[in-house]
Amino acid sequence: MKRLLRLDEIRGITLVSMILYHGTWDLVHLFGWNLPWYRLLPGYVWQQSICWTFILLSGFCWSLGHHRYKRGVTVFAAGALVTAVTGFVMPASRVVFGVLTLLGSCMLLCIPFRKLLEKCPSVPGGAVSFSLFLFLRNVNRGSLGFEKWKLLPLPEKWYHSPATAYLGFPPEDFFSTDYFSLIPWMFLFLTGYFLYRFCLEKGQLIHLEGGKLPLMQWLGRHSLILYLLHQPMLYLLLYLLVGSG
After folding, report:
1. What pLDDT, in 10s, does the model give residues 162-172?
2. What does the alpha-carbon distance between residue 174 and residue 96 come to, in Å, rounded to a whole number?
3. Burial letters 152-176, b for 16+ CB under 10 A, else e
4. Domain extents for the chain?
């Protein structure tokens, strides 16, 4: 199978969006800029569009990899590195159980369940996965439901430790500027996995082979290292441009 260049382009475009979002975050939270829209719905929708795309795309691409265990360990280790560095350098903005930890975990957890996943039909599997994601979206906030729709409160005793925070039930004193727990986000990852299966079965992957944005393709192919480097580079650039003024 040819490399699906459009996937690299989508990843590259999303990476650019993420860099712009984090640059805006730095301006607001580190340099004191007053951007009310960023703290309201437009900023939230922007942030969600980035993480939804990355997680769906990661699930979609999981079946394409030939070194799934190595890739999963690498991404998980990168997440651990982000946690260690932010905890040491800027503890007030630390990242615990961030998106890289989630993606690495999902990649690794799918390995022992691969045969079981392959037995699930793609359409029902994708529908159930996405429905579970929506149904469980609010577990971090103590209830079932999606966003403002709160269906049922969950027992407070479930929210008591870092281990439960990793699963999706953070204690009251848990804090992270980038938090993506297994529940509900693994179900969005699985939605991407089943979406790939559906496209494969329907012969639609051929439409992802062509690409017209070589710069975005390059960014997409190097997204992990760029993710790790972008925030310190952003901070330095913004400090030189606006921080000293």
Report:
1. 999 999 999 99
2. 9
3. eebeeeebeeeebbbebbbeeebeb
4. 5-243
